[in-house]
């Protein structure tokens, strides 16, 4: 930072339910196990509401949100050997782990008892700089722009990792429920992975887009029973539920085929009730999936680059964080909102 200002701009939340305050902050110094990233882009995600509303257990303030970070490493802690300055990197929801708990000893870092969450348990990417543990960092392929990489580090890895860890094989029917921030990426991944891909939406105006993104079928859930439609196609091996609505999830359980799964990645506020007959009859399941660790994120970025999966985004400067956040929370954005600090 020679000859350069040692302060940065950041959008800070000071209390549960508080508004964004645009502040000058000291540029953070990385600890020995950390790197500092100069942030080129940071996505705004619905999960940032945990920070703004204060609904995340144990969260402390002030806090800078943001867990869809893409940028360049500009400083490296003494203990870090695998990253160097100028590396293009990103960080997602998984913000680090302890390496010593039982889950970590088994290599299941996402289930770490002491897991860190970017922009929640430590300051995130609604800022010009951020420091993160080295194990939370994913390399960004050269062909991916920072603004495109950012949403892939949460919405992307969540859907890509859920699908690739499911039982679905190429050629089998995979349905994506909801054509929004998660769904528009999931359709692209499902198509690129070789699944017969059905998009389910309550908005008939999303049909053209869904087909353009690679869907083989579009199911209009306002005019037809989506479960019946899926059964007419042979029954889904996986329904990836991206719309955070318990009604929508309940309406689709009857659409799974033998050994099918409704895989929930968009979390409704209210409980989901399920007709157990439908599960017993299909030997099916309703299950959940949460994002991935840094290597999963890097796999997502690499696959996205390989198969040209790109998010549809709106970009805003950090100074417009308030209105950018409103676009996201009101569900007006098409489809992911990205800040460029
Ligand atoms: Zn997110
Ligand atoms: Zn651990």
The CATH superfamily label of the largest domain reads Medium-chain alcohol dehydrogenases, catalytic domain
Q: Alpha-carbon distance between the termini?
A: 17 Å
Kindly name the structural category: alpha/beta
Q: Given this structure, which CATH class of the largest domain is correct?
A: Alpha Beta
What proportion of the residues is helical, as a percent range? 25-40%
Beta strand %: 25-35%
Number of domains: 2
CATH topology of the largest domain: Quinone Oxidoreductase, Chain A, domain 1
Biggest β-sheet description: 7 strands, mixed
Small molecules bound? zinc ion
Rg over CA atoms, rounded to whole Å, is 20 Å
Shape: globular
| N-to-C order of helices and strands | EEEHEEEHEEEHEHEHEHEHEHEHEHE
Low-confidence stretches: none
Mean pLDDT: 96
Number of helices: 10
Quick one: how many beta strands?
17
CATH architecture assignment of the largest domain: Alpha-Beta Complex
Note down, in words, how this protein is organized.
Keywords: Metal-binding, NAD, Oxidoreductase, Zinc. GO terms for molecular function: adenyl nucleotide binding; alcohol dehydrogenase (NAD+) activity; anion binding; zinc ion binding. Pfam families: ADH_N, ADH_zinc_N. This is NADPH2:quinone reductase. It comes from Halohasta litchfieldiae. The chain has two domains: 7-153 and 292-340, Alpha-Beta Complex (Quinone Oxidoreductase, Chain A, domain 1), CATH 3.90.180; 166-288, NAD(P)-binding Rossmann-like Domain (Rossmann fold, 3-Layer(aba) Sandwich), CATH 3.40.50. α3 (146-164) packs across α9. Helix content is 26%, strand content 28%. Strands 3, 4, 5, 8, 9, 16 and 17 form a seven-stranded mixed beta sheet that branches. Strands 12-11-10-13-14-15 form a six-stranded parallel beta sheet, sandwiched between helices. Strands 1-2 form a two-stranded antiparallel sheet. With 341 residues, the chain is of the alpha/beta class. The longest helix is centred in the middle third of the chain and has 19 residues, at 146-164. The protein has ten helices and 17 strands. α8 links the parallel β14 and β15. It has helices at 49-53, 102-105, 146-164, 183-192, 207-212, 226-232, 246-252, 276-282, 294-306, 321-329, and strands at 7-13, 20-26, 34-44, 69-76, 88-91, 94-96, 116-117, 129-133, 137-139, 173-177, 196-201, 217-220, 236-241, 256-264, 285-288, 313-317, 336-340. The protein is globular and about 65 Å long. One zinc ion binds next to loops.
């Amino acid at each position: 930072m020679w000859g350069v200002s040692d302060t940065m701009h950041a959008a800070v939340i000071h209390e549960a339910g508080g508004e964004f305050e645009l502040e000058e902050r000291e540029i953070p110094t990385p600890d020995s196990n950390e790197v500092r990233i100069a942030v080129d882009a940071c996505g705004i995600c619905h999960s940032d509401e945990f920070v703004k509303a204060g609904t995340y257990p144990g969260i402390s303030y002030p806090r800078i949100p943001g867990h869809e970070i893409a940028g360049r490493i500009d400083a490296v802690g003494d203990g870090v050997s695998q990253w160097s300055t100028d590396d293009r990197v990103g960080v997602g929801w998984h913000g680090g782990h302890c390496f010593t708990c039982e889950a970590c000893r088994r290599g299941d870092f996402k289930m770490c008892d002491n897991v860190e969450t970017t922009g929640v348990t430590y300051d995130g990417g609604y800022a010009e700089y951020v420091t993160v543990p080295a194990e939370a960092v994913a390399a960004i392929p050269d062909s991916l722009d920072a603004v495109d990489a950012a949403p892939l580090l949460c919405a992307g890895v969540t859907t890509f990792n859920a699908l690739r860890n499911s039982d679905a094989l190429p050629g089998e029917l995979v349905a994506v429920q909801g054509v929004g921030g998660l769904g528009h990426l999931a359709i692209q991944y499902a198509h690129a992975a070789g699944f017969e891909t059905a998009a389910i939406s309550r908005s008939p105006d999303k049909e053209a887009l869904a087909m353009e993104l690679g869907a083989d079928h579009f199911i209009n859930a306002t005019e037809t029973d989506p479960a019946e439609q899926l059964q007419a196609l042979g029954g889904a091996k996986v329904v990836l539920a991206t719309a955070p609505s318990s009604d929508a999830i309940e309406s689709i359980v009857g659409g799974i085929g033998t050994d099918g799964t409704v895989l929930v990645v968009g979390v409704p506020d209210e409980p989901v009730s399920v007709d157990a007959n439908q599960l017993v009859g299909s030997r099916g399941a309703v299950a959940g999936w949460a994002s991935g660790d840094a290597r999963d994120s890097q796999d997502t970025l690499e696959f996205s680059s390989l198969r040209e999966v790109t998010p549809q985004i709106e970009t805003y400067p950090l100074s417009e964080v308030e209105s950018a956040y409103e676009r996201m929370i009101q569900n007006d954005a098409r489809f992911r909102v990205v800040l460029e600090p």
